[in-house]
Write a structure and sequence with these properties.
The protein is an alpha+beta fold. It has one domain. About 20% of the residues lie in helices and about 35% in strands. The chain is built from three helices and nine strands. A hairpin with a 5-residue loop joins strand 2 and strand 3. The chain is globular, with a radius of gyration of 14 Å. The relative contact order is 0.18.
C-alpha cells in the first residue's frame, strides 16, 4: 500500500469503520486491521492562548493532542486535533490567522468523531473547510 492509498483509505472511511479503545487511545480500522491511529496521551497540552474559534462552546478551554497513523508496525504520519468543551469534540486546527481547516485534517477528525459532535462543534466554532 502506498502513502497516497493509505491516506485515501483513511480519509474516505466513516467513523463506523473504526474500533475505538478510548482507554488505550487506539483506533483500529475494521476493514484492514493493519491500519491504526494512536492518540499520544503524554502529549496532551492546553493551548496557551485559546483562539476565538475554540471558545464558542459551553467550556471555553481547549487543548491540542497529537495522533500517529501506523500501517502494520510502520509509523506513517502525525497530526494534531484540538479538543474543545472538555473533550466533547475533536476539531481540526485551522490555518494560522484563519478559521479555515484543511480538508485532510477535517476528514481525519471525522474518523475520530466517536461522539458524533464534529459537525455541530465545527459550526458552533465558526470553522470552515478549505475547498
Amino acid at each position: 500500500m502506498t502513502y497516497a492509498e493509505l491516506m485515501q483509505t483513511i480519509t474516505e472511511a466513516s467513523e463506523e469503520d473504526w474500533l475505538d479503545n478510548d482507554a488505550k487511545g487506539i483506533f483500529t480500522f475494521k476493514p484492514d486491521l493493519d491500519i491504526r491511529i494512536v492518540r499520544r496521551r503524554d502529549d496532551d497540552y492546553e493551548m496557551k492562548v485559546v483562539p476565538e474559534w475554540a471558545t464558542h462552546n459551553p467550556h471555553s478551554g481547549a487543548g491540542v493532542m497529537n495522533f500517529d497513523i501506523y500501517y502494520r508496525s510502520t509509523f506513517v504520519k502525525s497530526f494534531q486535533l484540538a479538543h474543545v468543551d472538555e473533550f466533547r469534540a475533536w476539531l481540526p486546527i485551522p490555518y494560522p490567522g484563519t478559521n479555515e481547516a484543511s480538508p485532510e485534517d477535517y476528514r481525519l477528525a471525522v474518523q475520530l468523531d466517536t461522539q458524533n459532535t464534529l459537525e455541530s462543534y465545527t459550526h458552533m466554532s465558526g470553522l470552515t473547510v478549505k475547498k
